[in-house]
Amino acid sequence: MDNFFRGGTLGIVFTEGELWQHQRRFALSVLRNFGMGRNLMEQKILDEIVAFTETLSKDANEPSCDLPWRFEVCVGSIINAMLFGYRFEGDRKFDTKK
C-alpha cells in the first residue's frame, strides 16, 4: 500500500532496517541541536499531539479520514512551531504551503 500512495517506504516513519537507523541518528542529532529534551520543545510537541488526537476523535464518526494528511499537518505544525513560532490550524491551507 505504501508503494501505491507514497512511492515506497520512505522517510523516518515508514523505513526499516539500516536506512531507518541512519535517518534516526541524523534526526536525533538535528533535534538535539534545536533543543530536544528541553521542556519548551517537549511542550510544543505535546500540544500538537493533543491537537492531533482531538482531530482524530472528531473524525471518528466520519465515513473516511485522510490520516496521512492529518499526520503531515501534525508534523508540519511541530516544525513550524519550533522554527517560526506558529502552528497550522488543520485546514487545507497547509497544502499550499508544502
UniProtKB/TrEMBL annotation:
<dbReference type="GO" id="GO:0005506">
    <property type="term" value="F:iron ion binding"/>
</dbReference>
<dbReference type="InterPro" id="IPR036396">
    <property type="entry name" value="Cyt_P450_sf"/>
</dbReference>
<comment type="similarity">
    <text>Belongs to the cytochrome P450 family.</text>
</comment>
<dbReference type="Pfam" id="PF00067">
    <property type="entry name" value="p450"/>
</dbReference>
<protein>
    <submittedName>
        <fullName>Cytochrome P450</fullName>
    </submittedName>
</protein>
<dbReference type="GO" id="GO:0016705">
    <property type="term" value="F:oxidoreductase activity, acting on paired donors, with incorporation or reduction of molecular oxygen"/>
</dbReference>
<dbReference type="GO" id="GO:0004497">
    <property type="term" value="F:monooxygenase activity"/>
</dbReference>
<keyword id="KW-0560">Oxidoreductase</keyword>
<dbReference type="InterPro" id="IPR001128">
    <property type="entry name" value="Cyt_P450"/>
</dbReference>
<dbReference type="GO" id="GO:0020037">
    <property type="term" value="F:heme binding"/>
</dbReference>
<keyword id="KW-0503">Monooxygenase</keyword>
